[in-house]
Amino acid sequence: MTYHHGNLRKALLERAAAVIAEQGVEGLSLRGLAQDLGVSHAAPSRHFRDKVDLLRTLATEGHEALGRYTFAAGNQPDADPLEHLAALGRAYVRFSLEHPAYYRSGRHPEVAAQADDALKEAYGKRMEALLRATHAAQAAGWRQDAPALHAMIFGLAAVRGLAALLHDPIFRGHVGDADPGALIDGVMRLVIDPAAVRASAPAEMVEPGEITAGAPDAAS
Amino acid sequence: MTYHHGNLRKALLERAAAVIAEQGVEGLSLRGLAQDLGVSHAAPSRHFRDKVDLLRTLATEGHEALGRYTFAAGNQPDADPLEHLAALGRAYVRFSLEHPAYYRSGRHPEVAAQADDALKEAYGKRMEALLRATHAAQAAGWRQDAPALHAMIFGLAAVRGLAALLHDPIFRGHVGDADPGALIDGVMRLVIDPAAVRASAPAEMVEPGEITAGAPDAAS
DNA sequence: TCTCAATGTAGTCATTGACTACATCGGGCG
DNA sequence: CGCCCGATGTAGTCAATGACTACATTGAGA
């Protein structure tokens, strides 16, 4: 800690995440970060070309972490494809609440406008995983009438919008006391909508009385 | 135009909207605005206390305009409550594409964090109108099993999320050529889901078999 | 006509991002 | 073993910006 810091890059990312969680991206300043870590104001430039570069790095990490988080949440071995998809959606929203810095940096307009290959690839991997899960759910009877792309975007829009609402102080002020957990479950039930699957003709065999019974073939 | 501008306040709002539409909120500067309009750098402070005050004014105008826009789009006299709700949703997303400055200022985190009474009221009016439309749709058989609040938030999250996706360059890059209009229609069909209503017991008389017929094209 | 509130101007300061030149450290190579 | 050089951090600087203060101009109404 004398002249060289040790791992300034990592420290910058961690401190930035803490600041963003507290004050949002708008409250982040490179000079403030340097001061917090006890280095000179120019030190961060050795690790990040500019402010967007730091945010983009955080955003890329966030997409990768979100991928692991949703994978872990959706990987219950006994879940049928519909429950799997619902679990992915619930995990997405919970992740946004538990890791606000990842959420905010990942959706910052400057970052999206200046995305690099690493960020695009991390984003693309999530989309591919989601599309696979969507296909599996459709094969199990969910929204079979819709194009897979529309069905995927429908689910993605719902969870992204719900996360946005839960991060929006104006919305939070209007719905008042609502418990986020109950809201997430309730909304995701409307997105996945097992009743509609049972009402239409299911592709796999589903007994019309069982609600969440196990369709064993959960295609990873 | 010699010493006094005439209507600087209005000119500032209009120019700000144009800048935001082009470069986003991040590209907006009060001094740049003043220069564009040929006034001194301190002139804007006579009409807006600070930058957030200007954005908040734009956001409030935007919520009011969105209310009128959706009301106009959803007010087809012969539409049933489900089509009405779907029209509101489609209008929301179209509005966000046609008026990006209203959309972006209205969802800026600084603005949401520093909302004043006027903004909260404009927001609340939209929520009330949406809740009424949701109640009507539920009375007509839509998602009757869900609490009205959950059903409303489900629809709101879907359209807000879809708008966010359509404004996100990374998403746009991944879905490629997709036509926004077709996407909006396709996703809203999944949100409103007339088939599920007809499959369960409808409150109003609905003939099973017809899928998308009957509704006059909600073009315009 | 005179007054004064509304509106615009000029000057200033602190903060911030970004750039350049210089200092220090430490590992690999002669 | 010692030197060299790339990596890392420092100090200084500049332009852009938001926000503040003091002053100037206008025009409507008492």
UniProtKB/TrEMBL annotation, chains A, B:
Residues 29-48 bind DNA. One of its GO terms (molecular function) is DNA-binding transcription factor activity. Residues 6-66 form the HTH tetR-type domain. Keywords: DNA-binding, Transcription, Transcription regulation. It holds the Pfam family TetR_N. Transmembrane segments: none annotated. It comes from the Bacteria. SUPFAM superfamilies: Homeodomain-like, Tetracyclin repressor-like, C-terminal domain. InterPro entries: Homeodomain-like_sf (IPR009057), HTH-type_TetR-like_transc_reg (IPR050109), HTH_TetR (IPR001647), MT1864/Rv1816-like_C (IPR025996), Tet_transcr_reg_TetR-rel_C_sf (IPR036271). This is TetR family transcriptional regulator. It comes from Camelimonas lactis.
